[in-house]
Structure formats: C-alpha cells, structure tokens
Amino acid sequence: SRKQRRTFHQPRLRRECYGELIQIDGSDHRWFEDRGDPCTLLVFIDDATSTLMELRFVKSESTFSYFEALDSYLVQHGRPVAFYSDKHSVFRVAKEDARNGAGMTQFGRALNELNIEILCANSSQAKGRVERANRTLQDRLVKELRLAGVSDMKAGNAFLEGFKSRFNAKFAKAPAKPDNLHRALNVEPDRLAEVLCWRENRYVGKQLTFSYDRKRIMLEENELSRALVGKYVDTYVFVDGRFEVRWKGQALPYRIFDMDQRVTHAAITENKRLGAVLAYVKEMQDAAPPKPKVRTNSEKMGYKPNGRRPGRPPGSRAKKKIAQAAE
C-alpha cells in the first residue's frame, strides 16, 4: 500500500569542518520576475556552516556553466574535500555500461584531476541544506533584485557578491571544529583552463578528417598530421568557446568543412535545459529565411481549372448501357 511504501528520511548532523563537504545545485526560477527571462541560479553552500560559497546566474544547468562557477570557487577558496550533488547528468553517468568516458562525466573527470571527490545524493532530502537555501533565495533574493532594479544576468552576477556577504554575515553558522579543509589550488591559470574543459578522443580517417558535433574537422596536411591516420587525437572545447585539436599536447591546425550546426528534432534534451534549448530554437527559426513556395506540375504547365468536376460525367455509363439495349 501507499502507507507501506512511505520512505522516512532521518536527519543527519552537519559536517564538522569548513570545506569538508560543499553541496551544489541549480535552481530554475523567474529571478527577475517580469523584468527579464527566467534563468538558473547555481548555488554552492558549505555543509558545516551554511555559508554561501558561490552564486552565479546562468541560462541553464550545463557542464560549462558549472565549469565557470567551479573556476571562480577554486580561485577564491581553494579545493574542498568533496562536492555533494543530485544525479543530474552533469555529475553522473546514467548508463553504467557506457562505452566512452570511463564511467564518469566531464565534470567528474575534471574533479578527479583536481583530487576532489563528487558524491551524488539519492534524494533531494539528502542534500536538504542547498534545497532549503534555494527556497530562501527564491524569496529573499528576488525581493533584493527587485529593490535594486536588476533585470538581467550580467547585472545580477555583479549584484550577487554584495548579497552573498550580507547573507553569510546574518545566517552563517560556526563550525564544530575550527579547521579549514580547503587545500591550495597550486594550478596555473592555463593549466586550470585545460582541466575545466570538454575533452574527447576522435579517430582520424584516411582523409585526415573526423566528425565532431555534426561538423567535419579536416586537419591541415603536414609531417605530423600524415602520421595520425588510424590514430586518436584529443579535442578540447573551452568555456570561452575555443576549440582545439591536439596530439600529445601539441596543437594541430585544422579547418571546418561543414558549418551547418543546429538543434534537430532528434536532439536529446534534458528537462532542466529545456527552456534554454527552446529559446535557441526560436532564435534560429526567426533568423532563418522564408522557404520558397514549391510549384505543382499543374502550375508549371499553366493549367487553369474550368469549373467542371474532373472525370466522366455522372450517369454516362448508365446512358451507354440503355443505348446498347435499345439497339
């Protein structure tokens, strides 16, 4: 019965040290009310102290949006022990027998290189700290943005720094132990950009080409690229949109053969990214030129209807039979 299927979520104590566990989540909401489009607020909160560590307005929850927020977090605070998230596809591979990626997402691969653990909660109650913070922010932050006259994401992200300081001064708790478990980053900015990017392997064919994101990438022919036929090269897509092809760390010159990139009817879209995808589809549809009218064969031949119904006149067969019987 429904009563027997009921699940009880037992409360747990906070972590003892600051920086030991950071809960992360995205809250899709009309943060600017009717003054702007709905967007998502990425929230990083410390489990031990309820301190808001990072806030950022983004279009939707995606790997690159979390990369941007993580970059800002690491520069300000350093590396925590672990992140605690839901089972969003940014953090967890849905198929355990996935062939590519060694069973981890791009975000998980980046955290692994930085020696940071990622933990996924089985329910929203398990990461209740960040869920309750989202509910509080949907009330307090919306009003603060309204009073400040903020109506877009750029101005909102600039406003969040001051709001975060005021919020933490009023609501943050003291940890059970005074230790700060954040570790120094010790990573150069260029190296950090190479970690926080989308990396994949691609097989080079006999024509020095490979497919990527519905595009054909053609490597420039040189001494190095000639030896890459039948081998795998590394592709890097950075947060700022740059795309690079590398072989053992060395960048390779290339050119794109097909620039026709669009959202197709068969594209897989997650529920949390549906709003951003629909906005992109509408923008592409509005920018597309009108399709020319296709003329039929009758219009090409200059046929004009005479007002009569096509085919044999009604009753012609019956009249023919009557005439034959009379003969």
3D structure, described in words:
The chain has 327 residues and is an alpha+beta fold. Strand 10 and strand 11 form a beta hairpin. The chain is extended. It starts with 20 loop residues before the first strand and ends with a helix.
Provide a compact summary of the structure.
This protein is α+β, with helices and mostly antiparallel strands. The protein has 9 helices and 12 strands. Among the domains are: 21-171, Nucleotidyltransferase, domain 5; 197-256, OB fold (Dihydrolipoamide Acetyltransferase, E2P), CATH 2.40.50.
Examine the coordinates and then state which fold CATH places here, giving the name of the CATH topology of the domain at 21-171. Nucleotidyltransferase, domain 5
Mean pLDDT: 86
Question: What are the low-pLDDT stretches, counting only 5+ consecutive residues below 50?
Answer: none
Q: How many whole angstroms does the radius of gyration measure?
A: 30 Å
Total strand count, please? 12
State the share of residues found in helices, binned by percent: 25-40%
- Looking across the biggest beta sheet, what order are the strands in? 3-2-1-4-5
Distance between the termini: 86 Å
CATH architecture of the domain at 21-171: 2-Layer Sandwich
Task: Give a short account of the largest sheet.
Answer: 5 strands, mixed
Query: Which CATH class of the domain at 21-171 applies here?
Result: Alpha Beta
Q: What would you call the shape?
A: extended
| Structural class determined from secondary elements | alpha+beta
Which homologous superfamily in CATH is the superfamily of the domain at 21-171? Ribonuclease H-like superfamily/Ribonuclease H
**Topology as a string of helices (H) and strands (E):** EEEHEHEHHHEEEHEEEEHHH
Taken as a percent bin, the fraction of beta residues is 15-25%
Tally of DSSP helical segments: 9
